[in-house]
Write a structure and sequence with these properties.
The chain is of the alpha/beta class. It has 2 domains: about 130 residues, ATPase, nucleotide binding domain (Nucleotidyltransferase, domain 5, 2-Layer Sandwich), CATH 3.30.420.40; about 160 residues, 2-Layer Sandwich (Nucleotidyltransferase, domain 5), CATH 3.30.420. The chain is built from 11 helices and 10 strands. Strands 3-2-1-4-5 form a 5-stranded mixed β-sheet, with helices on both faces. The protein has a 5-stranded mixed β-sheet with strand order 8-7-6-9-10, with helices on both faces. Helix 3 links the parallel strand 4 and strand 5. Helix 4 crosses helix 11, helix 5 runs parallel beside helix 7 and helix 8 runs parallel beside helix 9. The longest helix is centred in the last third of the chain and has 26 residues. It is globular. The structure holds 5'-O-[(R)-(carboxyoxy)(hydroxy)phosphoryl]adenosine (KG4) and zinc ion (ZN). The site of 5'-O-[(R)-(carboxyoxy)(hydroxy)phosphoryl]adenosine (KG4) has 21 residues, from helix 5 and helix 6.
């Protein structure tokens, strides 16, 4: 007889996406509902925390109901309730955490607090059923840039991180500088192939920390370049700037990630987070990995950016390790990867 699957209702509200999903055994997605606030924040050129929280309050219940309904399940069918409790915007996180606590307490279900960044990594377990730790993972999102060794489910060693801006943040800032609007990542991704990467923007190395990243200098170099060109009365070649900037970010991500894979003796590499959906990064990383016999994994774009299915996957492995939260779970805006 087949064993009954472990079904988890997962909730995510750490930034500007209100999301809920139903996931079985950490790998099978029965529903994945995402209500994006992007259009709302576009007006202000970035996420406005207060508006995000208010919108989460409005959307959280309908999104959860929709996730259950699409999965054709009731709350009673759930084995546990999972929620992102950090890192993220405190007001935004609190909405999901409060909803999850209320539901778990009312239905007397176990509550599992999940680290958002670990959720991004777990998106790969949904996309690649055969993938298991250990592996090296490059996590590149709007708020985080990490190079980690995932030793086992829920066990991480941080090898490198950004010293300043996150990769996605630098995409967003440069996009704003060349008038592409928010969110900048997908817009630069789209414009870059129309240009030529002929502007020599810096590829920042952090002295004595081979796996660390620094993107703020690159952003300044782009701004200086634009000012300089404007002063000379030159036309701003937006597509060339997009291509050159993307090339600079991608080359650093590729070289650092491959160095970590080699140094740690791995033969596979995993990518996660919003920037992992970047076409330039995917193709450059794929080419470099193929050349060196490294197997590369990344999820579909919808699982790269914020969603609750990835939280349901990470939660399952926490649950299997007996790691559940109390009903007094609180939002931890500065939660670090691997921190419990
Ligand atoms: O992972 P995510 O949805 O949220 C965070 O946890 O931060 O990542 C959002 C970030 C934004 O900075 C966005 O501009 C970037 O990911 N992004 C991209 C692409 N799609 C999203 N950056 C580059 N190319 C893309 N195609
Ligand atoms: Zn995220």
């Amino acid at each position: 007889m087949e064993e009954r699957p472990c079904t988890i209702l997962a909730i995510e509200s750490s930034c500007d996406e209100t999301a809920a999903a139903v996931v079985q055994n950490g790998r099978k997605v029965l529903s994945n509902v995402i209500s994006s606030q992007i259009a709302l924040h576009t007006l202000y050129g970035g996420v406005v925390p207060e508006i995000a929280s208010r919108k989460h309050v409005e959307k959280i219940n309908p999104v959860i109901m929709e996730a259950l309904s699409q999965a054709n399940m009731r709350l009673e069918d759930m084995d546990a309730i999972a929620v992102t409790y950090g890192p993220g915007l405190v007001g935004a996180l609190l909405v999901g955490v409060a909803a999850a606590k209320a539901i778990a307490f009312a239905a007397q279900k176990p509550l599992i607090g999940v680290n958002h960044i670990e959720g991004h990594v777990a998106a790969n377990f949904i996309a690649h059923p055969e993938l298991e730790p250990p592996f090296i993972c490059l996590i590149v999102s709007g708020g985080h840039t990490h190079l980690v060794e995932m030793k086992d489910y829920g066990e991480y060693e941080i090898l490198g991180r950004t010293r300043d801006d996150a990769a996605g943040e630098s995409f967003d800032k440069v996009a704003r500088a060349i008038g592409l609007g928010y969110p900048g990542g997908p817009k630069i991704d789209k414009l870059a192939p129309e240009g030529v990467a002929n502007i020599p923007f810096p590829r920042a190395k952090v002295e004595g920390a081979p796996y660390d990243f620094s993107f703020s200098g690159l952003k300044s170099a782009v701004l200086n370049y634009i000012n300089h060109e404007e002063m000379l009365g030159h036309e701003i070649r937006r597509a060339d700037i997009a291509a050159s900037f993307q090339d600079a970010v991608v080359s650093v991500l590729v070289s650092h990630a491959l160095e970590a894979v080699h140094d740690r003796g791995y033969h596979s590499l995993v990518m996660a987070g919003g920037v992992a959906s970047n076409k330039g990064l995917r193709s450059a990383m794929s080419a470099a990995c193929e050349k060196q016999g490294i197997k590369l994994y990344y999820p579909d774009p919808i699982l790269c950016t914020d969603n609750a299915a990835m939280i349901g996957s990470a939660a399952y492995y926490e649950f299997m390790k007996g790691r559940v939260s109390g009903y007094d779970l609180n939002a931890v805006p500065g939660l670090k990867i691997g921190q419990r």
